[in-house]
Hints:
Blueprint: E1 4-8, H1 11-18, E2 23-25, E3 41-45, E4 51-60, E5 63-69, H2 78-91, H3 93-97, E6 103-108, E7 117-122, E8 125-130, H4 133-136, H5 139-149, E9 154-159, E10 174-177, E11 184-188, E12 191-195, H6 210-220, E13 225-229, H7 235-242, E14 247-252, H8 256-266, E15 276-279, H9 282-291, E16 296-301, E17 306-308, E18 313-315, H10 316-329, E19 331-341, H11 348-361, E20 366-372, E21 391-397
Parallel strand pairs: 1-3, 8-9, 13-14, 13-16, 14-15, 16-19
Antiparallel strand pairs: 2-5, 3-4, 4-5, 6-7, 7-8, 9-10, 11-12, 17-18, 19-21, 20-21
Amino acid sequence: MYKEIDLLVKPEFVQEYKNGYPLISKESISDWSKVTKEGEIINLVDNKNKFIAKGYYGIQNKGYGWVLSAKKDEKIDVEYFKKKIEFAIKYRKDFFDDESTTAFRLFNGEGDGVGGLTIDYFDGFYLLTWYSIGIYEQKEAILEALRSLVDFKGIYQKKRFDSKGMYLIDGDDFVCGAKAEAPIVVKENGANFAIYLDDGPMVGVFLDQRDVRKTIRDKYAKGKTVLNTFSYTGAFCVFAALGGSSKTTSVDLANRSRAKTQEQFRINDIDVQSQDIIVEDVFNYFKYAVRKNLLFDMVVLDPPSFARSKKHTFSASKDYVNLLKEAIQITNKGGIIVASTNSANFSMMTFRDFIFKAFKELKGKYRVEESFSLPKDFRVNDKFKEGDYLKVVFIRKDK
Ligand code: SAH
């Protein structure tokens, strides 16, 4: 049975929703007791009972739901999702047409009009990620919409219900169609990536760094020594090596990173033996590098927003300045630091301040060569700046 529930918005929040703000916050609603189950469709109304916007109830990080439509009469059904996904497909036409890139984001949550859902494309396979029970409740309608619009090899899913800050992994990521090889090999600007659609929360590559990887390969890598910290499957090193780096060093504390990185090198015909892959805490490695007087022409910093290792807790908003200081000390004069963060908690301006502070404290000079935010396929809602989380700065240390 399709039903909608009216929820009264507190007066001070009405204008925000009228302006198109898509995240339904807990504190903006007078009384949540009318909704009982995640996934319920809600109409936001003002104190004259006038319709403002329509959304769904689903608990995710800071929010209690997402706005889906500004139209009072719009029903949230298969047709609705079809319209959204169809538009998203058109928006990515260049990606579908590009044979050198077969992995990209097809649907980016609130950027494409439906917060809490992303769909990634991997060479004919589709991976849906559900960020709340609320959006997962719409699964059947969303799947029907997607299936009616695309020819697919297979469909997979990840549940990232975040209510306790934990990923829910129940090992049933396959949804329908054909099962994917483990791995499937996709292309990104001509390079290969091994992708595992059914092996834990991460599939092997972060698609949002595509333009950064290409830039490293095409403009910065040739003849350089490259240190890649928090390297995961070594994607930055793959591109550095393809761009002619003299040597890459990958550092990650996860055991799995060694075999995963070797595999990415191998499928790109890069000689694994001539690259270093180190399984260690990055912060120990920095100490080691300083002790051994190691210097690199390029240092990539791409930490998680928050991480806890045996000895360290790292929080990007608190500790990035120190991370930069570690990196600056082992970067050659005239070398490049690629500083990256996916933390939505601070802006590009704050991130630039971190860089300024780190160099100032070490009495060093630098120049910003270029910077990046999310690529085109990671479409952002201009009313929701927090969604534009990626910040990458190429910093040249002065000679
Ligand atoms: N830069 C990667 C993505 C990083 S994901 C890429 O381009 O694909 C974050 C990685 O940081 C994970 O693989 C995790 O194992 C690693 N990590 C977290 N804390 C760490 C630490 N203290 N030292 C080394 N690696 C760490």
